[in-house]
Amino acid sequence: MNPARELLRELPSLDRVMGHPRIVSLTDRLSRPYVLRRCRAVLDDLRARIQRGEGVSSDAQLDAVAARTAERVQADETRALTRVVNATGTVLHTNFGRALLAEQAVEAVRRVASEPTTLEFDLERGTRGRREERVEQQLIELTDAEAATVVNNNAAAVLLALETLARGKDVIVSRGELVEIGGSFRIPDICAKSGATLREVGTTNRTHLSDYEQAIGPTTGLLLKVHPSNYRVMGFASSVSLSQLVALGARHEIPVMEDLGSGALIDLARYGLPREPVVADSVAMGPALVSFSGDKLLGGPQAGLLVGRRTWIEAIGRNPLHRAVRCGKLTLAALEATLDLYQRSLDVTHDIPTLAALTRSCDELERAGRALLPALAAALGSGYTLQLEAATAQVGSGALPTDEIPTVVIVVAADRLTAEQIARRFRRASPPIVGRIRDDRFLLDLRTVGCAEDLVPRWRSDAREP
Ligand SMILES: *Cc1c(COP(=O)(O)O)cnc(C)c1O
Question: Atom 5, ligand 1: which residue's CA is nearest?
Fold first, then answer.
């Protein structure tokens, strides 16, 4: 008989594997169809290997098939959104989910997730209320705007605003501000999707008020200013300020909007950080609308916030698209709690993790790093050297793009390992630790780890070798 056919015949049946004690202990606590699917996949893999003429020998034994199935189930358990230690130095790391919520916000999410709340209920009148009302009121107070609203993310906020104000009309944007953010948010694409026509003016490095003025015509619906979050034109450059645009818009009765992107609620320059536009400053210039994200410098949940003139915010509220991009209750709860801290906390730079990470002094980071060195050296074993150094880090998520902020790092070097190999070893710890490589050196940045002890790797049994 052909050896492949023989091997296939000898494979344990699905029923036998499902009856194996290891699998039975799984189906005692997990859905049987789910375990069956994993088990069948292991057998299918073996059949494919046999058909390709590969030797499978011991892998095809009943015990081995059961063990492999159990491994796959285990892998599913660890795969779901694994916690990582962010030692990259990038405070708002898009790949790690940007802002971390304040404790109060986490608690608020837990509450609305597990209990009924007054999400859309007016207790006073016993009738239906609007879910966004409280957050809108908070935003009005925090930015001094006439009105505010909130949607799922800033991309949705911009889309919704363009659709409401400029569908079937022209939107005038400087060529220096036609940005792409996060790989998929592009101003020209959002503009096209909103049904507005993009009118580019000026050049990449210089745009003048007269460029806007000359482009204004009977079909102009909006003047849009975009904060070029993730890059900056240096050198021979000029752009038109929001206040100039607002004055121009007023002369022609055309609304003006600014997409601030990150949008800080407090002035970071007060804490020695590079200046990032503050939402209230933009609002004070009197544009129709200002939009910004909830999970960048604000330090809240993913959300798109719109503040500005009442007539325009009301028009946006009447747009059916608003309903399609509205926030869920978990978001609203987290946002309400975060904004509450901005209103009432004695020290937001302590209570809001993003602001805490940005404002911690290098002295404090250095002390934490120095205290950690012995434990880190012990976890790494011989062959490694550790060194505490001053360095610079990025804010991330398009906030303060060209400015780096001072930080403190631990440089981890090893006799026989490259920086890449050390990085991989740390990524295999439990929880995984993600540092950064600069100039062929592996760095653990202290600014972005909430608790320095997290940098001491706990090795998984299979992670010893690089
Ligand atoms: C980040 C950003 C966006 C997109 O915001 P999301 O909240 O990620 O949807 C839009 N515009 C600017 C200028 C940004 O920086």
Answer: 154
